[in-house]
Design goal:
The chain has three helices and 17 strands. The chain is mainly beta and about 280 residues long.
Length: about 280
């Protein structure tokens, strides 16, 4: 797929770009072929008091084993199943996670449930069971990507601040609304988890369960920033957004990741996703 690579000529100044505005600095324009692949966002709604959720996490691990970094996972600890108690003192719930659950009504349908690129929301068939995940991913993983996302990150260990730029390049002519969301996740968090599957670990509870891809927060709110308001843009059009975010002192910087994805606000469908380690 041919496109125009838009390279930043002057990186000394970072600009905040308005909706659908193209980059207006000096650029070197080249013609080439991008090697982007479809990358899928899976949002897993879970909770440490959900006994079937370790089974769903295992299904996600199997999908990653198959497709590698073409799968980006965000584990959203739901409001009820994620509530802290004496036996489960950790609280992984977030404001953004609660906002997502309010819109997509995942927990009320019974957990575990996941969304795969948020497809099917308008038809109310976006809630995917763990046994359906592999099939749903297989349906869309071979699609050509509509755009490419790159994250350029600089992390300062002293301040724990990450400064990064998300660059989006259209791979074909497009005329649709687009919004960019950026989440922070953390993996390798150890705390108790209910479990109903003895093949995975002790029942009814795994005391040293490893929670991965846990949603910690959002850089730009639950619904992100407007990238395009629906104007017609040719292939090769580039949109860029600079951000800064300071990690919570309790989070392990080596296990934190930035997750960026572009979605269509009219349908909620995620068009492309990307992930990079904070450090």
């Amino acid at each position: 797929m041919k496109y125009r690579i838009i390279l930043i000529g002057l990186l000394s100044i970072i600009f905040t770009f308005q909706s659908c505005n193209k980059v207006e600095e000096s650029y070197l324009i080249e013609t080439g072929e991008i090697q982007a692949k479809k990358t899928i966002l899976i949002e897993e709604f879970t909770g440490h008091q959900c006994p079937n959720c370790p089974r769903a996490a295992k299904a996600l691990d199997d999908i990653v084993d198959t497709y590698g970094d073409r799968i980006v996972i965000v584990a959203i600890h739901a409001n009820y199943n994620g509530r802290p108690t004496t036996a489960f003192p950790a609280d992984y719930r977030t404001e953004v996670g609660n906002a997502l659950d309010t819109k997509f009504k995942m927990e009320e349908s019974g957990l575990p449930k996941s969304m795969v690129n948020r497809t099917g929301f308008l038809e109310n068939n976006h809630k995917i069971k763990s046994e359906e995940l592999a099939g749903k991913v297989g349906e869309i993983i071979s699609e050509d990507p509509l755009l490419d996302i790159k994250i350029s990150n600089n992390y300062d260990e002293v301040s724990r601040k990450t400064s990064f730029v998300v660059s989006i390049t259209l791979l074909e002519e497009m005329q649709r609304k687009m919004q960019l969301s950026v989440f922070i996740t953390e993996s390798n968090i150890v705390s108790p988890q209910k479990n109903s599957n003895p093949d995975i670990g002790p029942t009814p509870q795994i005391d040293d369960y490893v929670h991965n891809h846990v949603l910690r927060g959002s850089v730009n709110g639950a619904w992100g920033d407007i990238i395009c308001i629906g104007n017609l843009n040719p292939a090769g059009t580039n949109f860029s957004r600079p951000y800064q975010y300071t990690l919570d002192p309790e989070w392990k910087e080596n296990d934190c990741s930035l997750v960026a994805f572009v979605y269509d606000p009219d349908t909620s469908e995620v068009l492309q996703a990307a992930e990079i380690k904070v450090k």
